Protein 1
Amino acid sequence: MSAEAADRVAAVTSSRPGTPLQTSWFEFLLDDSLLEKHLQKSNPDPAPVQLIIQFLEQASKPSVNEQNQVQPPADNRRNRTLKLLALKVAAHMKWDLEVLEKGLTIPVLNMLLNELLCVSKVPPGVKHVDLDLSTLPPTTAMAVIIYNRWAIRTIVLSSFPEKQTKPGPHQINMLNIVQQEKEMTENILTVLKEQAADSISVLEGAVRLKKDFYVHTMRTLDLLAADTAANGETESSTAGLRISADELHCQVHYDLGGIFFHQGCTDLPIYEKARDHFRQTKELLKKLDSTVHVHLDEKRLAGYWNACRALTGDCDPSDPQTTPYDQINSLIRAHNYPAVIEAFIKDNISRSLPNHFRRSVLREFLYKVQQGESGLDEVCHKLCVCNGVRDALEGEILSVRFQQLLLKPSKEVVDFILEVCTRSLEKDRPSEASRRNMANFLKTLCESLEDLSLVFVVSSHKLFMELLKEEERKVLVEQMRKRSATINLSAKPLPSFYDIPASASVNIGQLEQQLILSLEPRRIRQILIELHGLAERPFWRVNSKWEVPPDYINVILGIKDNLTKDLVYILMAKGLHCISIKDFAHARQLFSACLELVTEFSPKLRQVMLNEILLMEVRAHETMAAEGSKERPPPDLVSRVRGYLEMRIHDLPLRQVVGEECVAFMLNWRENDYLTLQVSPSLVMNNPYIKLGQLLASTCKELPGPKESRRTAKELWDVVVQICSISIQHKRNSDGRIGLIKQRESSMGILHRSKFITFIKKIREPLVLTTLISLFVRLHSIVRDDIVNEVTAEHLSIWPSSLPNIQAVDVEAVAVTVKELVSYALTLNPNNQSWLITQADIYFVTNQYSAALNLYLQAGAVCSDFFTKAVPPDIYTDQVKHRDYTRVFIC
């Protein structure tokens, strides 16, 4: 092992016990065979895309000459090798753009593919559109195709809203890394868009070539590096990984379809080109026996295909090959609305149309009504009924719109509901689940209707008789009669006290008690519907323990419909309570129901619920981790956390605790590259937790490496010193002299010390905690000014050795914080040698000699296997050995 690697191991081992060592980028320079061994691991750390980032980051670092002037990256053997290593990793990934785009930023991928063009000997200074691919060496032609495929794919991907950004390389001497990354991305996109027509021409030429293609592998790249390609091996027709013409054509047709579909927004006839390319993609997919080298999303392809056919009118309802989507779109274009309703009823049996598509059709008709198109109200009502019955058959919560339709329905609407229910059950042998769900739906329908005559229409229907037992029917009809009588009596104008039946108040009380106890969303909704039928008052006030965050209260109470307002408030309040007692299963049910409910009418509340669901999932995963689970969070959860930290939705109520826990989550799972490079500057400015997370990540990111960074450490130091400072006011005394008044818990820092401590106690990552302990030990030593009794910790050298305004620092606050911090860290890992020594030093300098000796012995036992081996000198330093332990016995 090299000295540099040994230093790194020593730096990490003491502060992160039990954590597998991550292979560092420079080790791949020292051992030629290490990269291939690393990539063959089942779960390599760093992952392949992270290696590409690290290699290119190091290869693109500017150099500084003797005059301290910044120079471009040197073209030396080291940097060329690093670039080659990045290419070899991409070759190991078989140049899968789908994976590379997800893991790399646009600037990094641009750098990687330009390097591929360079090593593949693409003629410099010649436009790709002017090259004849058929005359180029196979790997050269393939490099051109890969680059231009990426170019048009990037144009399409950059147009998507909420596109997730990934960690990328950072340069030194940057004032604003994120801003520069953004500017680089915009500049690259501008060039790609200007050259889009050329890229399309290149790829259209590629699909006309009928020969197989070859792409660079790790072996051919090694040959290039060794300069053994003079014999022409890397340029021969058999060098590299073979990709059949059909496989490449399938992939290129898909990418061309995507760019033409993107351009069709401004030029409708182009959708026909997109449709043709997607058709050829589908045909080639059927033809191919193996699709190892075809990387496309077949669900997205199906979506593109259906969209193109709908937009170009290329579908005939009578065609047996026509999909249900095509049929519905054709009927809508033909204004054949009765046929659309008929198709929805039939689909309740076949269930070939997904619910989201059916709802989108209803929204399209509602939009037409809002735009003033007449005659569509009845169509909207019937489509809403069809969707409601479909939801009922699948045991889903009925939509708010359907509930509103049942408030005062006409007999025609009730008759149509019963018709749809009858036709939506399989004629021969409906499944037991369908029968049970339909029976529950008919009971709900009866309970929702206030008009007793309409209840009679339902209860006397043939389907009602078949699905419900006689006893169930009698009980239900009797309940409806009693309820009707109660409502009629309660609705009398100015009733006397004796006119109100006793059963009404008793019934409301019982229902309210059930409402307080229930955790089942459907039951909660049903109880609220019954309560609103009995009395008009805000039932969200039934339980004073129901609380929603103040940030959301105005938005929720602004909901006009009282039933919906109660339901949203109660579902959220109950979900938050379940999270507080770690009942995450019920919390998920409650929040999911609330999300579905608000999606119908409020984009703002929908995003609020998505944020709360994210917070719930983060807390659930952190709870499992605290209980000993070693399972990493799923990529989807990490992606959603990143999406929250990048969110730029204006006028949306945000709880700081969501950002706080998201930052702690990212620190705990070592997403330091992301926090350092990709978080929005506006969020850093507005959320103190994100600011702290960014500084901690930046500092920790540099610590395990061969050099320690002082610039980021100094920024973190300044922020923490401010948090521990107190405001100083000057006041003239009676004798004319000016004195100082110190005000504790001032708001000088980005947040109060108590909130800072709370945030720290959500962090579990050893290196982050070691960094914070180191910072506070240094700060504690400066404000105590006791050279004899020093407290030791790791990485002390990165912090400043003095304070310009030491009298502003709250000495007591620093002392309390360092004790709390070390004590908390030891609850997570009682055997961390460094933390044990720090805690022992703190006890010794505060005259707790017995406790100090106990911890010194414990630290020695841990690192020496209970003193069967020598205690390392960095544990029992000269200071520890020469302390005066006789005080233990004196005390």
Protein 2
Amino acid sequence: MVSQGSSPSLLEALNSDFLACKICLEQLRAPKTLPCLHTYCQDCLAQLAEDGHLRCPECRETVSVPPAGVAAFKTNFFVNGLLDLVRARAGGDLRAGKPACALCPLMGGASAGGPATARCLDCADDLCQACADGHRCTRQTHTHRVVDLVGYRAGWYDEEARERQAAQCPQHPGEALRFLCQPCSQLLCRECRLDPHLDHPCLPLAEAVRARRPGLEELLAGVDNNLAELEATRMAEKEALARLREQAARVGTQVEEAAEGVLRALLAQKQEVLGQLRAHVEAAEEAARERLGELEGREQVARAAATFARRVLSLGHEAEILSLEGAIAQRLRQLQGCPWMSGPSPCLLPQLELHPGFLDKNCHLLRLSFEEQQSQKDTGKDGAGSQGGDETQNRREDGIKTEKQGGIQPQRRDGAQTPKEDRAQTPQEDGAQTPKAERAQTPQEDGAQTPKEARAQMPQEEGGALTPRGGRSNKKKKFKGRLKSVSREPSPAPGPNLEGSGLLPRPIFSCSFPTRMPGDRRSPRITGLCPFGPREILVADEQNRALKRFSLNGDYKGAVPVPEGCSPCSVATLQGAVAFSAGARLYLISPDGEVRWRRALSLSQASHAVAAMPSGDRVAVSVSGHVEVYNMEGSLATRFIPGGRASRGLRALVFLTTSPQGNFVGSDWQQNSVVVCDGLGQVIGEYRGPGLHGCQPGSVSVDKKGYIFLTLREVNKVVILDPRGSLLGDFLTAYHGLEKPRVTTMVDGRYLVVSLSNGTIHVFRVRSPDS
């Protein structure tokens, strides 16, 4: 890339991809320039035009096609001139492997020219030594620049040849463009000047350029200023993102410490309450044992006396009964007069009384507040960001100490407050609790989190510092709702049956590694990923025209050779073979690079997504809104349109993958949705809801249970959907280090591999809910 303010050299323009068409990847032929200043072959543009419009394959801008067709787009004479220079350096007519003289055949008696040793830069002709000497001596050509042909072919005279090069008129071959018609803004040769522009004011090209160059330079200077501002804004955005991540890490630590402190206080209160309960039960049991012993003794005495009296009455004679009658009556009256207990002794039964915070689902001990991010200068003056976090932590520690000292205030079973609790509350204007009372609350039963759960949920919250609910800070401007920026708005919460239940997969970071190798001439641009053997991945680097192998630990395993000139886009592995798309072709090659077959695809699509079927013996490719499936022999096995023929022309599957259940999952840029369909094209589910944040859906991957992982590049997220395409929530965010994620793949059904735009790869292990 040419830096701002510097001029690109001619050598860079000739040796770069500037002269290659980004559609056919060949040298430009009849170059036409679109209003967005991107240049393509005229024939390639004709194949992209539909209904009077076409979309630029690079910037995706929609352009109206002129009524006369794509031929009416402006011809890029600049590119034509460079192409003429490249063709001249490559050589034209050859004889016995050497260039031939262009003037010898014009002389009588010579059927073919001799070997050329020089070149005239003005005539653009190769000359033999004799013709070169004569060229320098004639009156008409003695001012021409004749140079050595070997040096010319080596590029020594490119700049000088470029200065002497003249643009040719497309209507009159052999005539150079010399004039500019001012009313028509059209370039003219001498023939064009005669009719119909004879009466129009015209200027020589040099004079016209001198008149118009200042205006173009002024516009260019304005764009340079805009570029400088954009670069400064981009750097400021990166710095803001870095500060956000730093603050998020700090807040995450505060959340963990605060949650652990609350849990410690709660556990301490648990032990205290259980100790009180044990002491009460032990004292009650001791008193009950004493009462039981006394009752058993009294019962035994009374039972013995009653048994004796009953025997005397039933077995004794009259004289015996009468003789004992006095003693028995006295004893029985004595036993009847004892103070018997009518019932059990009063026993205090323990009851658990919960704080109102346990029963209030709207009570949160941990909440996030958001503040406007200050500029770096303002931050350097007062350091408000870090101080706010420290003050919040101090307030949280004070709240924890209050809980330890005062304990949880009891609540009576009938809902009334205890006197102690009633005295502790102070009336508020709107009924809100004071910060102190707020800090005294404990987490609700269904909202309490362990530190591990708090860490797992931190990526779903962005920025900000912790403050007690209802607390206010004079240094911060609060946002009562969610942030309205699309790039920072969290995804819609999962359904009630999944929220906080731990039923969703969670990411566990494994490793990160770059994909640029020492032999790469350019920065990698990863356009495709797929599994390749056990714990390996295959990376399609379109910029370096390579298929690279890496282990999941980041070890480079070599490359799979690709055919000459191919730039792999999307890639998939089959049984002992590799399938990939490049341009408008689908290739199947062996791991050693042998081409087994290739098939031509539609030119109306800039790129084609490739996915391997679960059986491993067929490959699917997206082509112009439908899906084609080929077998290992290259024969078309099936072809379908997601949603049936009624959807023809309404789909544009830019990314495609398959699930272990045999379904297809694609990112539809035409409908701006994620579509799930079976092998026959019947749509099972489709999502186009607010969880996409207005972005075009990106790369898709599916794990072994059918969960769909969707990349949203513009907001630096990977969200998760269920097997039928319903949004469940965020899986990866910028908190996990995502910066412009590009493509993903699933390895072994449990490793999600994510590539970034800078060529870095992150590997995450997908932790299933039941593991």
